[in-house]
Inverse folding.
């Protein structure tokens, strides 16, 4: 015999674009370009067991609400939007006791001082995930993804153990590149989301650039601590850093030097370093990472 | 103050291809085409805190071991390979107390009866994740991904609640399509991995095809139960089913009928249904899903 | 001063799915899953020069026609569909003198003998491009893409020139893998499109598998000739074959042999071999490859 | 009977990263991040017909040369690099009469004023293709790809013909977004490549932002003319502009207004507008676009 041990359902990747007409400081438009995913859970097991949809608010309705809330709330920060949307589902649908709303924000830059023209800024993706649970309360995590950074020097790697499969030479100078996926958990809901995001992003960049690195792990920890320091409202940081290997090309067979000038950028495989850093006084995470 | 609350590191996406020369029944070659990712944890905090790599077996060594074990073990099932590789890291590196080895297997079909020629079979990706922990023991999960299936009829959706954002009409006949991501946990390590995989895959397909569906949730549960029934060695099934919407195109403006014949296959957004089904006598999951 | 030297416009990647209910031999459903792109040209320069759209049939209308023709024509071969749709645009819009219709067909297999259930067969993508021009006439090219094939032996590479940048050793036995993009041009419009496609695909596979290869170029030529031989209605074949390198892994540092058993499948860079083979009596290509 | 009507071969997507140490104005590093593809043709038919590789410089050697030239030339503009590399192949290999070298340059920004730290700037990809032919001479085309731009207003679409499949309403105000692929051909090889690229890119952006648009075709022509005007060394511009549809969401069923504020960003299908604009005094293109 078996049983349903967990379930949730929703609409994924709703492409919501919200223009705040003349809403920018100085009068130009604001552009919020979001990929929104909603997911509901609660008393929904009948749909799994018998196909009874009495408690299943259609995912199409969730999509409609995602658009309607974007209109009603204005071109707000994604965290503020996700909070309102998550609460709406739980408050308005009695069988639904938990909602998860995830927003990926795609960046745009104004073209010079023009009010209405934009170019896509793909430097990073801004992310947030709100979980609102009737019993466990509400959590907000935010983060960045797709942020690729590189130091041309200031990185070593040596002193590691050598087993029978170890052929890697030690190095006192290497290129270090990674694609930052960072997520931080907030202590409360009383946060200036935009400023906090900017501070966290800047702290990540600054820590990556200024940490003299003996291991990507060390850089990871420094980046996480920098976020905690720059954003007092944050209490936990999770980082996932692929080591995007840049191998120095051996030009000696062609009689040429290569004084840390020419590299082969490898695709796969890549190192992958993960870590979680927690403030000593962090409240329990609850459902934040579900 | 803050602290490292969790960390692991390894080599991701090592592209290992193992030919079993004349190893097939009847004498042709066997081709194992794998993307292997290894990840180690244990007494590694010094690398995060100070860049001391004394306990950090290089990810490059992990990659070398991934290739070396493929040679030594032969063209075996991916679960058998992952088990050996995970145990090796923990057994040979005292500071390492846990290893996670994930293998994606990409399918190939022999061209007719030819011994040495293959075509890529991209119908699905076979997956396995082994976690071997010095204390918590060893777990194996296996699964399929990228398996796209479709029923041209035999699916309804009605009887759902309607809120102020609900405009979806009820339907007594719709096309149902999804891309199956399914993972099942094994009760033990004493399993005929190849047969179990085939039985699980066939059960998923058969349950999808034969379940008259009032909700994709219902289809999901039926598919999970079918795996548990077909593979007694499995005790838990997790499914993630995107509802790949196919919308009937309204041809009335052009004076044409559309009797369930012409559909628009939408990309985004899509419904997303998730569920976990557990055998009543399932042992605790431990670290299997980490 | 400058001038418009060429222009065309249309709707790209319309996702048309056509079910032929009970249309298969034996009674099950037929599934045509297409990505359709239309492109029109003719007397359309005003839209470029002044934004005058008098002659610009909207791309939205082209999309609607793509769906409507799928209904009207039934679950026909993609070449037959593309021909009708291309003629329609030119015949019905006087300023439009040329239409190009491209169809990518995504494969599906019936699940066993079930009438209504399918699994996606991603072994290859079937392609066709029809160009219909009021003056130059009508051409049909068809092809395959995404077809990945591999020989575990039967390939050598030696006897090449060596310059100052050459370090590659000669080899008398290597693995040979490629992702076939092949396109063939038909001599006429009086063709059994389905049979011709099957014959061409089978000829490509057979030639790849049976050609003992001293260069991927040689395999390419053999594959092209095989299509011309198998499909008398074809008169020109274009092939694009990436050399998907599989490098033998050096396991000697670990004291292990590697008798052509363990390979690293590289992503980038890759060799890329292109070629066009023409029947001696091929009619002029006209606009077929535009 | 059939014959080889065309062939070329080379190495595709070599990932070359060149650091110019302290080479930036002011002393920081310069980072050239390139994906380089080389392709050779000439007296190479024997490799296709019989597998005789006597004239086939290995693609591996081409790759090595790509790295070696990056070292020797320094962190130069991609056009300068491609010219040198193309000439080398033709000059050094008598059977090779033509070389095509394509470079995609991936952007990086310095982190503040730091000398060694960079973030990936994915706003656009810079491209160049050099064709050097023993007989036909040398051509350079350059361009941008992946540049996504959007105007929140200033675009209309009306006055188009209506056929039986036309349901699209006319609009006097719509959002206009596209992903710019632009390529321009140079008249000569005596060009300041860096300045020309910047001028062309700025002209594209400015023309997109300032053209009041009655058709994306009109915007395309304006963008092309702007490049010709801003870069006197250019003589031909080719543009490919997908119309990335943003559909105004109908919120009326929910009792909400939508005054050009909330849009659904569609993936597929999309309009696709192509055009070529030629200076009246443009020299013949020769092999530039091969």
């Amino acid at each position: 015999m078996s049983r349903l041990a967990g379930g949730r359902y929703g609409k994924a990747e709703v492409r919501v674009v919200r223009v705040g007409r003349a809403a920018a400081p100085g009068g130009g438009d604001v552009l919020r370009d979001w990929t929104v995913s909603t997911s509901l859970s609660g008393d929904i097991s009948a749909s799994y067991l018998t196909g009874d949809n009495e408690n299943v608010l259609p995912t199409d309705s969730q999509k409609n609400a995602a658009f309607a809330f974007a209109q009603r709330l204005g071109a707000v920060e994604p965290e503020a939007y996700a909070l309102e949307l998550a609460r709406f589902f739980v408050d308005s649908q009695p069988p639904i006791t938990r909602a998860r709303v995830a927003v990926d924000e795609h960046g745009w830059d104004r073209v010079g001082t023009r009010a209405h023209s934009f170019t896509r800024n793909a430097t990073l993706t801004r992310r947030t995930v709100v979980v609102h649970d009737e019993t466990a309360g509400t959590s907000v995590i935010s983060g960045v993804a797709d942020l690729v950074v590189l130091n041309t020097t200031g990185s070593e790697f040596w002193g590691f153990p050598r087993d029978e499969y170890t052929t890697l030479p030690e190095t006192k100078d290497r290129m270090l590149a990674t694609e930052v996926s960072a997520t931080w958990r907030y202590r409360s809901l009383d946060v200036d989301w935009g400023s906090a995001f900017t501070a966290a992003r800047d702290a990540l960049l600054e820590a990556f650039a200024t940490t003299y690195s003996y291991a990507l792990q060390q850089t990871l920890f420094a980046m996480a601590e920098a976020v905690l320091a720059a954003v007092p409202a944050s209490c936990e940081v999770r980082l996932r850093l692929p080591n995007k290997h840049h191998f120095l090309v051996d030009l000696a067979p062609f009689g040429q030097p290569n004084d840390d000038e020419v590299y082969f950028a490898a695709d796969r495989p890549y190192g992958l370093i993960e870590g979680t850093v927690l403030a000593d006084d962090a409240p329990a995470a609850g459902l934040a990472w579900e």
Chain A touches chain C through eight residues (CB under 8 Å).
